[in-house]
């Protein structure tokens, strides 16, 4: 997984655009026109990727699942048998906690899942694997947070998955052994279409419970046309999701048992 991480970080913004910028400067004497084109693409890319308005526009094309209404929370048991929460990363080596903690994005998902669990009394499964092969699993960290921070007990831990597809695959082995095929799926709104599609390939009926919408009006001065460091991270995340969604439809398909 280390080599995959390194290649991905070098290819994606801002690293990929910075490398293009450096290469353009290095080649400016030998191939001035090519260098000028690369320089322009790098600068324009860095600018666009740092804009909140770009986040809003890009997210609007990924966030296709509507949010649940608060009135729906208590009616979830009529349509589903469990809540599944997908991992969203972790924070390491924070002296305040003296241990691993869910990332801010993961906490966003956990907080929402906890509200749904308390309103519906549905059992919860958390799904997320190891960080570069090192324990504890993300699922264990999430389960600990649900218990300690929100007073919600996790019934099932799926701690081996490394991808969204594996979230679905390994969760299916746990839940379907219990006869569960109708679930409430909790993840970020921009991640929901790919997540829903993956779980549907394994025969689940899904109630989408997206959280953390980025497509809403950004509320920034000048309508989000001023660069922000946060927007760079968000746009990179959205770009990764758009590529992932495209590749999933090309390289993954439903298991034979679900066809």
Textual characterization of the structure:
With 259 residues, the protein is of the alpha/beta class. 50% of the residues lie in helices and 14% in strands. The chain has ten helices and seven strands. The strands form two sheets. It has a five-stranded parallel sheet with strand order 5-4-1-6-7. Strands 2-3 form a two-stranded antiparallel sheet. Helix 7 links the parallel strand 4 and strand 5. The longest helix has 23 residues, at 229-251. The mean pLDDT is 95.
Topology of this structure?
Elements: H1 2-11, H2 15-26, H3 32-49, H4 52-62, H5 70-73, E1 82-86, E2 90-94, E3 99-102, H6 104-120, E4 124-127, H7 138-150, E5 156-158, H8 164-175, E6 182-188, H9 192-201, E7 205-211, H10 229-251
Parallel strand pairs: 1-4, 1-6, 4-5, 6-7
Antiparallel strand pairs: 2-3
Helix content: 40-55%
In what range is the share of β-strand residues?
Answer: 5-15%
Computed structural class = alpha/beta
Mean pLDDT: 95
Tell me the strand order in the biggest sheet: 5-4-1-6-7
* Biggest beta sheet attributes: 5 strands, parallel
What general outline do the C-alpha atoms trace?
A: elongated
H/E series: HHHHHEEEHEHEHEHEH
Kindly provide the radius of gyration, computed on alpha-carbon positions and rounded to a whole number of angstroms. Answer: 20 Å
Low-confidence stretches: none
E-strand count: 7
Distance between the termini: 31 Å
Q: How many helices does DSSP assign?
A: 10
């Amino acid at each position: 997984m280390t080599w995959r991480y390194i290649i991905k970080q070098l290819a994606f913004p801002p690293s990929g655009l910075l490398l293009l910028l450096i290469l353009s400067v290095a080649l400016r004497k030998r191939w001035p026109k090519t260098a000028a084109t690369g320089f322009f693409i790098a600068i324009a890319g860095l600018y666009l990727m740092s804009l909140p308005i770009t986040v809003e526009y890009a997210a609007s094309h990924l966030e296709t699942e509507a949010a649940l209404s608060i009135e729906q929370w208590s009616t979830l048991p009529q349509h589903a048998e469990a809540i599944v929460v997908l991992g969203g990363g972790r924070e390491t080596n924070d002296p305040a906690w003296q241990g691993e903690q869910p990332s801010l994005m993961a906490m966003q998902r956990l907080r929402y899942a906890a509200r749904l669990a308390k309103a519906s009394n549905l059992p919860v499964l958390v799904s997320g694997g190891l960080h570069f092969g090192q324990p504890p699993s993300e699922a264990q960290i999430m389960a600990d947070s649900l218990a300690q921070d929100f007073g919600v007990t996790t019934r099932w831990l799926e701690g081996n998955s490394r991808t969204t597809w594996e979230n679905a695959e390994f969760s299916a082995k746990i839940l379907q052994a219990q006869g569960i095929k109708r679930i409430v799926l909790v993840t970020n709104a921009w991640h929901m279409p790919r997540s829903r599609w993956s779980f549907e390939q394994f025969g689940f009926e899904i109630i989408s419970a997206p959280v953390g919408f980025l497509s809403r009006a950004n509320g920034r001065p000048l309508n989000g046309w001023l660069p922000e460091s946060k927007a760079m991270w968000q746009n990179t995340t959205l770009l990764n999701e758009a590529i992932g969604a495209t590749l999933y439809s090309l390289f993954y398909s439903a298991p034979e048992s679900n066809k």
